[in-house]
What we know:
The chain is mostly helical. The protein has 2 domains: 2-86, RNA polymerase sigma factor, region 2, helix turn helix motif (Rna Polymerase Sigma Factor, Chain: A), CATH 1.10.1740.10; 106-174, Winged helix-like DNA-binding domain superfamily/Winged helix DNA-binding domain (Arc Repressor Mutant, subunit A, Orthogonal Bundle). Helices cover 69% and strands 0% of the residues. The chain has 9 helices and no strands. Helix 7 packs across helix 9. The longest helix is centred in the N-terminal third of the chain and has 22 residues, at 16-37. 22% of the residues are buried.
Amino acid sequence: MSGRNDLLSRCLLKEPKAQEELYMLYKAKVMGLCRRYARNKAEAEDIYQETFIRVFRSLNQLNDASSLESWIKRIAVNTALNYYHQTKRHNHIPERNGHHYPSEAYNEILSRLSDEMLIGIINELPDGYRMVFNLHEVEGYSHQEIGSMLNISEATSRSQLNRAKQALRNKLKQFGVLKYESYE
Length: 184
């Protein structure tokens, strides 16, 4: 813990090496989070950069060094939500033709779906569905919290989550994934 406290102290003194170390320490986690909320890589990079700008500007507000990771995650989620509200638009789900693999074994099909492809499938969801799905299924927020964050009702949050899951099931069927575990 003293190493983290030392790193934070050096960052607060605006030492470039310490800031780079903090940046590198959380780079992959923050970019992964940004990719889940952004529609494409360019948006994710914008959210990512804005997140670290906010982290370094607000570092003096962090009360407990042991909560650094969750604090950075919360900033990244809020930055993504702000980006969503600023760039809200209505998009349809583009179709992927020719990606049905009916004759391949189930495990082979799953192995073909890279993390990047799964992120791509999730990113094809309409914005509202994607945001609710990520906030609920990935980040673990309740529907009441999501409603507050997105300025929607709790019922709308539940409905959008159900629709997101159905859309994802339909997309996965296009890739030949016909069975999966249900966590409902």
